[in-house]
TrEMBL record:
This is BBP7 family outer membrane beta-barrel protein. It comes from Roseiconus lacunae. Keywords: Signal. InterPro entries: BBP7. Residues 1-23 form the signal peptide. It comes from the Bacteria.
Amino acid sequence: MKRNIRGMTLAAMLLSASASVHAGDQEYADAEQASQAFVGDLGVQQVAHNSTHVGNLSSYSPVTVGDMQLGSTVSQAGCTSCDSFSCDGGCDSSCDSRFGSGKRFGRLLNLCDKDGWIRAEGMIMFMEARTAPALVTTADPTEFPVLPDPNNGAGSGATTQVVFGEELDGGVSGGTRFDVGRYLSDNFGIGGRFMWLSENGDDFSASGNGTGDSIGRPFFQIPLAAPGTASESALIVNQFSTNPGINSQRGTVNASFSTDLLSAEAYARMMYCKNKSSRVELIGGYSFFRVDDNVSISSRTTDVVTNTFLADYSDFDTQNEFHGGQIGYESLVSRGAWTVRMLTKVHMGNMSRTVTNYARTDVGVDTTITNTYNSSLLVDENQGTEEESDFTFIPELNLTLGYRFRDHVSFTVGYNFLYFDKVALAGEQINRNVDGTDGPRNIDPADFDFDIVDGSLWVQGISLGTTIDY
């Protein structure tokens, strides 16, 4: 009995001494808070978290009396804050009691109890080169700017070069992408994403005053009366003539192509599996894509002697709209301030394609137009608007590396890839075969009918951005 009394007395003295030391250091804000700390009281940790102790919490050492430990671990060795995802337990231990709810989704950027995200990225993207027939050619002076054709005799088109057409490469395009979302529970969240790429294309122009290199617009002549004699030909834009019976021609030609892309998504994400430093989530939702493509070409040729002119304009415009669903997964691995994220999805749905071909030809003298026709060198019966749709897939891959340079904010750099199948591209709708009818003509709108040619298009590039957790 005396030993027990001595033990209790010793414990009371130790507690009294500890409280006195803390009181001398002004670690208790008032007597009421100080009275909350006693042996076995689980509220000791809460007192510490409420900053009733002054000084570095990580230096607080539990006091053991017998088999009982006063308080619990306030901060783990080497951890300076609950944001340290690399600490043992991460957001599953001390942060839970500190923040109450103990939500884990702040792990996305090594933060505790953060269940929303905003991602903004600038994109530098490359599009696959589109294809089209040879639309503008040049040749040496006095040479006919026709494409090489054995049917025209040896050496025909030997100096001809294609200066617009065949491969339409728009180079680099800039764009933006935004991703905003929020977790509604520990295992389920919703979000939305929007992407826009600026116009990917180029312009071309060439002109002459009746001298210099020959400029032409090539086509393939198919005489109706003798289809077996089909051969390459060209509409002259500029050429110097040495033949007495043929006048020189002067003129200009302008051409352009462009492709625009935008998308919008609404999705949900659900936890599939996770551990201390990685996670995998399943993603599903709605997807919308739109790809617009255009090729246009116009020329004006004037006879240098008679001043008669022929102005020819052709425009090919396509719109591709995709509505469907998406399914995929996103995996994330974190090491300290670094994160690696991989998003793999496939969009499945209906691709609606609309193709509109427009043509106009003006004939006149000097500045006076004497006749106008709704056809052109490249557009005869195959003009107007056609629509069709098919079921298709759009695979997508995003790989992103992020660095958290401060709480809540990370810098990211990533690689992005998209592939579109069954899209109508303007250059592939151009048919350079001319049926041999002499001169431009008016087309009855009832004859507007043509087949849509399907193609494919990939887009890839890098993104630089910022991620904010809230």
